[in-house]
Amino acid sequence: MDEEQMWKGFFLKLHELKMNPPTEHEYQLQDGDGGFFEKFGSLLRQKSQLNENILRTPLSSLKEDIQIEENELIIEKPNHADPIDTFVEEILPPWAPTNDIGDTVFDSGTVMNVEDLYEEILFEIYNNIGCENNEGRIESLVGFAQDAFKIPNSTHLEISEVAVRKEPPNVRLNIEIIKAENLLSKDSNGLSDPFVTLYLESRNSHRYNSSVKPATLNPIWEEHFSFKIQLNYSAILYLLYDSKLNEICEPIVKDVCNNIKRLDVPDDQFEYLPKIDNLNMGTTLFELYLVLKRYVQLGKSLCTDELKMSGFYQWFETGVTHWLDISIIKALNRIQKAIDLDQLKAVDETVKYSSSAVDTLSIFYQIKIFWQQLDWPEVEGCYTFIAKIVNDLCRCCIFYAQRMSQRVEKLTKLGDNNKIFILSEEWCLAINNMDYIRQSLPSFIKELGIDNVIQKLGEYRTNLEADRCSSTINAVIENALDTERNQIVELIEIVSHKMAPPMKLYLAEGAEVLHKDSNSMDQLMMYLESSLDTLYNTLNEVNFGRILESIWSELSIILYDLIQSNLDKRRPPAYFKNLKDTLQTMIYCFKMGNVATDVNILSTIQKRLDAYALETADLIHQYYIERLEYQKNQPLSPFGQLTIRAEFTDSSLLLTILNARNLLPMDSNGFVDSFTKACFMPTSRFNGISPVKTTVHHKSCFPLYDQEFCINLNEQQRTAEDSLILFSVKDKDLFGMSSQYIGECYASFTDLMESEGKQIIMNLSRPEYTDSETLRALEFRQGDKQAKDFIKKLKNKSYS
To answer: Is the peptide bond before 665 cis (omega within 30 degrees of 0)?
Structure first.
């Protein structure tokens, strides 16, 4: 790329910056630290790319060519001082006058004819002294020159032929052999007959000998030799410059880096942020680093010898560490400022996060650009730096989550009565912001090239060492992700906790029996619909599911407290029925969109409400249904078994009590005088139907009853699914005055119909006084005689 094209590229980039200046928000954000991250990130990279245009050669080409059309170039003079003006002052050469930059840069006046100049260039290429004989390289240089001069092919062929016909320069190496002194003796007379052999290492087959000087150890020749040579002057000059640059740069860079003061970096608690007023660092040091890096890369392509500058990066190690310390401090301060400037409004209609999340990730992006430009060549140092960058990025994410949570907690809005929490979009966007940064962190760290660094570390050290380092990095990342997740969950819990008081108020009012005409249910639905609509439209799907789960958890606590407090007040079942209906309405209200609402967390509460909403008779019947389920899951019974058979007709039930097996002996003789009694449940449904009872079978643990009973039933009694029969097996005492309880079993009408005409064997059991919701609900009905009598009877059976 010639100078003219290079400066055109520079002004085009400058024009792009002018056409897309930083916004007012970006100015405010960068004002606190003077655009620290942009200087070392995108601006430094842009400046480095422009410098590479100047140094571009066939040996060191750019990764991408910039095509510039002259008619696209627009040059504007700056109206006021800004970062771009400063950028211009740093880049422009000192000879460029500021009043008319365009005329100076694009002045095409020359003192030679273009074709004559082109001919001289081709002659230099064809006869390049010191260049290796490489046809491919010569062709690429010729092609590059033709493109640079924009010479047509026909003209190029004519000028090229002239340049080739010119007599090439005759380069020779002249050597004079003068004398030798104090040679070793090789002959028996103590003398030697010495001569000298000369040859070029690159052409060792062509050798030349001096004359022989007989019988002497101090010969004098004074003879001249001349060699036709090709020297690699580029490599020789490069090695010379390499030595001089190393001598000049090393002490200066080391002195600068060694005088850098250590910074006080805040700990993970972030209790304070250091002031950044006097905390600054120029880009000059790293501009020098980038220039030296390009210099070494070019030298390696020219020279086979080791360059003294190869280890230049070690001089900058302290400087890089200092920059990373400054970057974490400035990053934390800028994140805080980004949160302060954030209006907590979505940046546009297509996303659900606000400006501070974008600003925070922009900081990460600039750090990534700096790291990519740094391109630290030594693998162990590279791992050390990238590990610190990863740790600092993770700390920034945690800091953002904590400070954003604090910011949004100050935005709590109350309703007209100063009691009802009004959920706003700001809360939802704060949650989305934290989650957006959390989700972006792993992929962003991967873009830093951590996997490649770990792989190189394994090649340099061992795979075990690389695995250990990888585990350390992953542990830091996972810790940050977990901390951010916990912060998000904590903020979600705060939202649901603030919604709890109005939900509790409306639930309590809606469950009051005496307030049937109250509009509390409508108020509850309006509050929930408004809050859920805000959540659904603002939160992303994941966070919406999280907050629903949190609200259900909070709601379960509210319902538990309501149930407990009203049980103590001996509320009637109607109260709990209203509360149950209110809960069902709320569950319906929470079914929004495609998000699966998980109400399993309320299953225990619903069971309690189901129990407390039942009347006493229904509650007792529910207990028997629970006992039936227990019986079906009972593998063995110590009390014995009972066998029956049943058939339904259009108007009756034919029940046959067949036998009992392995009854528990109740008498001292090891036998039992048993009989079986069958009662129909619930008693309210079978009012007027008396229990049936078998005859007593004496002294037998395997009684054969074989008695059939016909029980007349109406259609409603026959078809009710939850109807069941309670079979009680007892032992008749000697005098027939009382009976001892052996055990009981249950059979539902549904089971009888499914096994109609077949024998049904049932395990006997004794009711256990367990801590079930049904029994707990019966116990709380202390003023209910039916409940008290049932509990008393149940306890007697349990302890018999």
So the answer is: no
φ, ψ of residue 216 to 5 degrees: the values are: -155, 150
Residues with Cβ < 8 Å from 741, sequence gap 6 or more? 728, 730, 731, 766, 796, 797, 800
Buried b (16+ CB within 10 A) or exposed e, 354-387: bbbbbbbbbbbebbbbbbebbebeebeebbbbbb
DSSP state of 492: H
Provide the b/e sequence for 594-604 (b: ≥16 CB within 10 Å). Answer: ebebebeebee
Q: How far apart are CA 486 and CA 435, in angstroms?
A: 11
Q: What is the pLDDT of residue 502?
A: 80
With beta carbons less than 8 A apart as the criterion, state whether 720 and 749 touch: yes
Average pLDDT over residues 594-616: 70
Closest CA to 176 of 208, 147, 144: 208
- Statement: residue 235 has pLDDT above 80: no
Q: Is the pLDDT of residue 178 over 50?
A: yes
Higher pLDDT, 218 or 550: 218
Helix, strand, coil in percent for the chain, rounding step 5:
55, 10, 35
Tokens of 689: 């139907």
Task: Please report, for residues 162, 682, 714, 716, the alpha-carbon distance to residue 685 in angstroms, rounded to integers and kept in the order given.
Answer: 123, 6, 10, 9
98 sits in which H/E element: none
Which residue(s) pair with 422 in the sheet? 413
Q: What angle do CA 355, 356, 359 make, to 5 degrees?
A: 90
Closest alpha carbon to 9 in 142, 109, 89, 106 = 106
Residue 762 has pLDDT above 90, yes or no: yes
Residue 620, CA distances (Å) to 162, 211, 788, 789, 799 in order = 118, 132, 11, 11, 19
**H/E/C letters for each residue in 116-131?**
HHHHHHHHHHHCCCCC
The residue written with tokens 């003006």 in the block is: 85
H or E stretch covering 256: helix 233-258
Neighbours of 776 (CB within 10 A): 14
771: pLDDT confidence band, cut at 50, 70 and 90? Answer: low
**What per-residue confidence (pLDDT) applies to 23?**
74
Give the separation between CA 391 and CA 476, rounded to whole angstroms. 7
Query: In angstroms, rounded to a whole number, what is the distance separating the alpha carbons of residues 159 and 178?
Result: 47
Length of the chain: 800
Instruction: Report CA-CA distances (Å) from 286 to 251, 366, 782.
Output: 16, 15, 84
Percent of the chain with pLDDT over 70: 77
- Exposure string of 57-83, with b = 16+ CB inside 10 Å and e = fewer, is eeeeeeeeebebeeeeeeeeeeeeeeb
What's the pLDDT score for residue 678? 95
Q: Span 111-133, mean pLDDT?
A: 73
Q: What is the pLDDT of residue 65?
A: 38
Q: How far apart are the first and last CA of the chain?
A: 105
Estimate to the nearest angstrom the gap between the alpha carbon of 199 and the chain centroid: 67
Residue 6 has pLDDT above 60, yes or no: no
Are 752 and 760 within 8 A, CB to CB?
yes
Residue 112: what residue type? M
Contacts for 322 with CB less than 8 Å, ≥ 6 apart: 257, 260, 263, 281
Instruction: Give the Cα separation of 800 and 794 in Å (integer).
Output: 10
CA-based torsion, 592, 595, 596, 600: positive or negative? negative
Q: For 708-734, what is the mean pLDDT?
A: 88
Residue 172: which H helix or E strand, with range?
strand 172-179
At residue 237, does pLDDT exceed 80?
no
- Tell me what percent of the residues of the chain surpass a pLDDT of 90: 24
- Report residue 130's pLDDT band, with 50, 70 and 90 as the boundaries: low
Q: Answer yes or no: are the C-beta atoms of 201 and 237 closer than 8 Å.
A: no
Looking up tokens 């005098």 gives: 735
- For residue 84, give every residue at least 6 positions away whose Cβ sits within 8 Å of its Cβ, in sequence order, or none: 14, 17, 18, 21, 78
Mean pLDDT along residues 146-165:
87
Distance, CA of 427 to CA of 634 (rounded, Å): 53
